[in-house]
Structure prediction request, 686 residues.
Amino acid sequence: MRNGPNQQKLTLLFVWGILLFLVSARLFFWRPVVLPKNSYLEMETEVSQVFTLESSQKLSVGDVAVFAPLYPKIRVGDRINIQGKVDLTGTMLDPQIKIIEHKENFSGWLWDLRQKIVGKVETLLPAREATLVAGTVLGVDRIGRDFRNDLIKTGTIHVVVVSGQNLSIVAGVFLALVKYLGRRGAMVLAIAACSFYAFLTGFEAPVVRALLMVIVTTLALFFGRATTAIFSLFAASMAIIFVWPAAITSISFQLTFAATLGIVTLGAYLQKLMRVPVAGEITAVCVGAFTFTAPVILYHFGSVSLLSPFVNILVSEAVFPIMILGFVLSALSLVYMPAAQLLSYVVFMPAHYFVRVVELFAEYDTFYVRGFGGSAVYFVLFAALILGLVLIWKGYSREGV
Amino acid sequence: MGMHLRLILTGVLIVVLGGVFFAQEAQKEGRVQAVFCDVGQGDGFVIFGGGGGQIVFDSGLGSKMIDCLGRYMPFWDRKIEIMVITHPQKDHMEGQIEILERYKVGHVLWTGALGSGGLFEDWEKLVREEEAQLYPVARGDRIEFGDVNFEILWPTKSFMDLWKLAAGSDLNETSIVARMNYGNICAYLTGDVPVEKLEDVIDKNCQILKVAHHGSKSGTSDVALYKMQPKIAVIQVGQSNSYGHPKREVIESLNKFGVKILRNDIQGDVLIQFGNGSYEVKSRL
Prediction:
């Protein structure tokens, strides 16, 4: 959709406003805590992040990743005494942890609320279906190792951990109301909804990064041109790397960047080419995202499934009802559990469909491309090939289609 | 096609497909079956009694048991009728915390042996909060459960009384040994019990053996195998575990007696379905 110069100026102004805010925040408020590596550490600290994994709890203490036993449970806001060995990579395994006290603060309250909701959803749905709701609605990653492997194998992990796709869905719902709300109204509501969604998911760094990239590119695409979207995506990514230098090595950041780039370039091109409503759009988005994320996945995980775009097409229609119904289920579970129980039977259907499709396709090992794990040369070559193809064929889309 | 007809057809489609789906889910509970879940380096299995209920023995580490229950139980069933903790060690009880948090648990069977540390305290607290009925069991107790029944073979009450006075050094000694009976088929469920105790309590042949202590040398002997004459043996063991389980000697003994070996680290979940005087092994659902 293209607009007049005023809309484009507004979009650019908005993008630059966000970037300026980020840079200022980085310079004035945020200072990373760097702890010594390859040494014994004993310190008292307040817990600001806890992730419950399948057989451990992961805490972030400064720039050290701590893997503690599952019990006793540690909460955000707990003041703890921690002792253990930090290795060269900044990891501490099986430390001695003593909870001294619990301090009430806003992030602790929000974390408790999310855990409470997840706890209730987990009493209503089987484990795998519950992780889908917890992941897509609340950004709580409780995926077990086997199911996680299945999701990685089928290239659908991005649905369950809060990612650009989920935020795009939220933004898309409100931008679709443009007829009734007007452009400005739809934009404001989309940003507000995405921000609320990020708030629900705890404003964790990967979510905030995805939020920025998605808001900036979705709006640029909606109000401007594809080139504005690509430019905005790059500008937002640069700002993110400036604020969180470690993001450049983070898989979630690389995947969100690659997927967004794939959707606004190859995806947009394929969409024009196919001209099939809904199905064409889904296929274009899935193929675009897959083609650009494939080298990143191959680099980090050593294998990628060629069935991934197909699986994504199959499950994509289930994601929207899981998110929307999951949101209502989460809210209802806090108010009236019997009603939530009834609704959970409805939520189960799309969630179970998603789980079974993923389990089914995870079994097919023959469609895997393997190797090249950790090979930067290959990664660069593949990325160059894709970008080259996009540039070469870009002209064709304007003239021929 | 008119609007009314479309609505009627939509309703019929939903009812028919929903009905087929529900029927398929309901089948999961209707049959007698045992699922030895792939819970990593630990024990965790669930037995469906055929009457719609489940009895869960141990639960391995972390949340793997929950994942397993979610896949084998119908989605509407959020109750575990009986949960057994053979002995309070992490690789047998950690997963029970998640079960207590997510499912309604009717009864908890244990020996009364106390564990230590934050994990055991959390477990006790959750059992109290759940208001589950806590039953200490001992040799001679019999549990009727749907179409199957369980005989408790170990520990004896006198042993547990002694243990309470002066706790021994090895919690494995307190491990519950039970025998599941279904018609003429039976299974020895052995926890981590040391083989000397196991040899003492075997009093009949059984087709199925849950190998004690993840295939450690301390849990299996030729004498025990000779007394049991099992046809199949399930070893609950994690891939590439640091203990080197199952031990070569145990595998050799089982091979010597012609026992078919099923391992969670190789087969994943091991599912045994029981029929009229027969059983069938499936490595996955």
